[in-house]
Write a structure and sequence with these properties.
Elements (H helix, E strand, L loop, with lengths): L13 H5 L46 H20 L14 H25 L3 H39 L8 H25 L3 H29 L3 H26 L2 E7 L6 E3 L4 E5 L6 E2 L11 E6 L2 E6 L4 E2 L2 E2 L2 E3 L5 E4 L2 E7 L4
Helix pairs in contact: 2-3, 2-7, 3-4, 3-5, 4-5, 5-6, 6-7
């Protein structure tokens, strides 16, 4: 500043103030928008492009694993019973037509395996995947049905021998109920093995086996009490086997959900409410039915739209088509717990189990 300017000051006259246009309090500045058509820059918590945001929808319990696996187990058991019951003869009645007795349990186990294998594909509305999995499950289920029935009969015979030594002589004794439950746990193992094989995941198999053991064991325990209440015969078998199938499927779904590590929960779109557990090192998302996560009814989704990879302890999202994370377009992004991923009309919230 020059010495000459030290004594100079800025003077504002009354005429200058009169020329200033007063702005009413609450009138937005140019370039901003408010609700109702006025302008606003938004906030740092909002997506930069409002078109990328989707409204979270209420999920349907019909898309929960425990529900559709329970329904599949119930339906498989009832169908197996229905096929064999006309040719089933109660031991007290005698008779020569006994192929229903030989096939009932193996067929029920086989159809349980088929039901567990295709249930998720049906929920995802992927008939192609359901047919392929069904074709794989049926022969495995039949083989496992006979193998595991032999194992169950062996366990049951040993258990009855122990019960007899302890003084439990009839099926009205709770010790016999527990013995049947222990023997029938092996049927749950069969369903869990097939469930993991078609899902191509050893962890899924482990969770399926654990859930199957719990569900089939509980179903086996209540089988004899049901027979007592219904006075035996066909009604006791359909109710008893139906409950075994239902309990096995529900238990598989609950155990799998309780022990999951990382998953995507669908918050918007036709599958809102479903969760996709991330078992594989590489999960493909797209509109092709061969994808691990099949997204239908959206022409904006490519056949292979995105890939989710497990790299060490991180989950990496690699986008092929237009994909947004928390409202921002991405091509490659590490997913953090709570992140919202949008692909077309679908939105997913990534979650992971907290580790100590």
């Amino acid at each position: 500043m020059s010495p000459d300017s030290k004594d100079k000051s800025i003077k504002i006259t009354l005429d200058d103030l009169a020329n200033v246009e007063a702005r009413a309090v609450g009138v937005p500045l140019p370039g901003l928008e408010t609700v109702g058509g006025a302008k606003s820059y938004g906030s740092i918590n909002e997506a930069s492009d409002p078109k990328t945001q989707v409204v979270e929808e209420k999920g349907s319990f019909l898309l929960q694993g425990w529900f559709y696996l329970g329904a599949a187990g119930l339906l498989g058991a009832v169908i197996g019973w229905g096929i064999c019951e006309p040719r089933f003869v109660d031991s007290m009645e005698g008779g020569s037509r006994r192929w229903g007795n030989l096939l009932m349990i193996p067929l029920i186990v086989a159809l349980l395996c088929v039901g567990f294998g295709i249930a998720e594909s049906i929920v995802e509305r992927s008939p192609r995947k359901a047919l392929l999995r069904g074709a794989l499950c049926l022969p495995m289920g039949i083989v496992f049905g006979f193998i595991f029935e032999l194992m169950a009969n062996l366990i049951y015979a040993i258990g009855l021998g122990i019960c007899s030594e302890l003084g439990a002589q009839t099926y009205r004794n709770p010790a016999v109920w527990v013995t049947r439950g222990l023997a029938w746990m092996v049927f749950g193992v069969a369903g869990g093995v097939v469930y993991g094989i078609v899902g191509m995941s050893s962890k899924k198999m482990l969770y399926g086996m654990l859930g199957g053991v719990i569900g089939a064991g509980l179903g086996g325990i209540v089988f004899d009490p049901i027979a007592m209440l219904t006075h035996g015969g066909a009604p006791s078998r359909v109710v008893g086997f139906g409950l075994v199938g239902l309990a096995t499927g529900v238990a598989v779904g609950l155990v799998e959900s309780a022990l999951k590590d990382r998953w995507l929960y669908v918050t918007a779109g036709p599958l809102a409410g479903k969760q996709f557990i991330l078992y594989k090192p590489r999960t493909v998302v797209g509109s092709d039915q061969k994808c691990d996560i099949y997204l239908f009814k959206d022409s904006n989704i490519a056949k292979e739209h995105a890939i989710i990879e497990l790299t060490g302890s991180r989950i990496m999202l690699r986008a092929i088509g237009d994909t947004y994370v928390n409202g921002q377009p991405v091509r490659q992004q590490v997913l953090m717990a709570g992140a919202v991923v949008q692909i077309g009309r679908y939105a997913f919230r990534y979650q992971e189990r907290h580790r100590n």
